[in-house]
Amino acid sequence: MTPPANPLERIPGAAIIALSLAAFASGISLRLTDPLLPLFAREFSISPGRAAAVITAFSIAYGLSQLFFGPVGDRFGKYRVIAWACAACAVTTSLCGLAQGFSQLVAARLLAGATAAAIIPLAMAWIGDVVPYERRQPVLARFLIGQILGLSVGVFVGGFAADHLSWRVPFFGIGLGFVAISLTLFALDRRLPAHARVQNRAESHAEGHALRRMANEFAQVLATPWARVVLLTVFLEGGFLYGAFAFIATHLHQTFGLALATVGSMVMLFGFGGLLFALASAWLVRRLGEVGLTSLGGVFLAASLLAIGLAPVWWWAMPGCFIAGLGFYMLHNTLQINATQMAPERRGAAVSAFASSFFLGQAAGVALAGTLVALWGTGTVIAFGAAGVLVVALAFSRLRARRLASTATAAAPA
């Protein structure tokens, strides 16, 4: 479906703001448990690597659920599905706070990941539907301010709760936030123009088994060679980055004896680095282009993780976290833009496949890192993630440069 010439003029200004708030709550839920790992290890008498199962469970469920929500959003309206997902998140996040043991907490995090899965990828796909490609990256970056701040606040709140509150309190607070956001989204959905509410309406009545139709949509996405490159890249990015990132709080706490609230405040700077990218995204896109953003972003990210993992003093982590956030969003936002254009006629499925790959990569990376921490220590694991993400970023930059050159040659007049 081709968006109208001036789509944002016909859409309430609050529509994207509300999606950004949903992304904010999702981001808090995602990263809340990172600084809580040492507390979980003590309270449940388990190792920090075992405690990381709360992160792995969320990521696995988040990743696999994309395979369901993408086609559902295409058929029933992405905005409406996001609203229902936020309502479900209010329940599943509260269940985390009610867990009576570690196994119950992991199970509740699994459910929380599954319900949160619809929010960010379907919001990205919806923006792709209503915003022309040449205007999309800055709009997408502004939307992602919500997620960026959510990731930062999640780490801070988790660390603060570990030192001053019960770990259960933040989960109940997030649940109440999801209730308010869900009601707002439902109200705004009724005000959206028809083209922004339901996509592929005719296909929602297509014959055949639902699972077969979903499989067919994802098969069409995977049939595109460039889509396979983007999906593999984001899987590896998620694995290397978050395998390291999940243990930054634990590393700073164990190595330098810092309070978890202090650590949470420092890791929060990652989000402010991302916020800088969001505010400067239009200028950075013009100056660097996609190839420059991914290559330089990878360098920033890798150098920052190395500084954090190998730092002789704790304060190196402060600029390290900030620059890591800037570098990550330079790389990841460019990958997101490519995801919105992998298969425009199946954008919901394409972006969901992208998010699925990213979070399954996170799950694999955190699980592997949790095992390696016991053998190598947190500092070496963080440095390993730095090396991996640099290789991934530079490889994608080279492939993207080749693709752009090939496209330019094909478009040149004979």
Strand and helix map with partners:
Elements: H1 14-31, H2 37-43, H3 48-51, H4 53-76, H5 78-98, H6 102-116, H7 119-130, H8 133-164, H9 169-189, H10 210-222, H11 225-245, H12 248-256, H13 260-267, H14 269-310, H15 317-340, H16 347-376, H17 378-411
Question: Would you kindly provide a written description of the structure presented here, covering whatever features stand out?
Answer:
This protein is mainly alpha-helical and 414 residues long. It has a single domain (11-197, 213-404), classed as MFS general substrate transporter like domains (Growth Hormone, Chain: A, Up-down Bundle). Helices cover 81% and strands 0% of the residues. It is globular, with a radius of gyration of 20 Å.
Spatial shape: globular
CATH architecture: Up-down Bundle
List the total number of helices. Answer: 17
SSE class: mainly alpha
Low-confidence stretches: 1-9, 201-208
How many runs of DSSP E, i.e. beta strands?
0
CATH superfamily: MFS general substrate transporter like domains
* Strand residue percentage: under 5%
CATH class category: Mainly Alpha
**Number of domain modules:** 1
What gyration radius follows from the Cα positions, in whole Å? 20 Å
- What is the CA–CA distance across the termini? 31 Å
- And the CATH topology? Growth Hormone, Chain: A
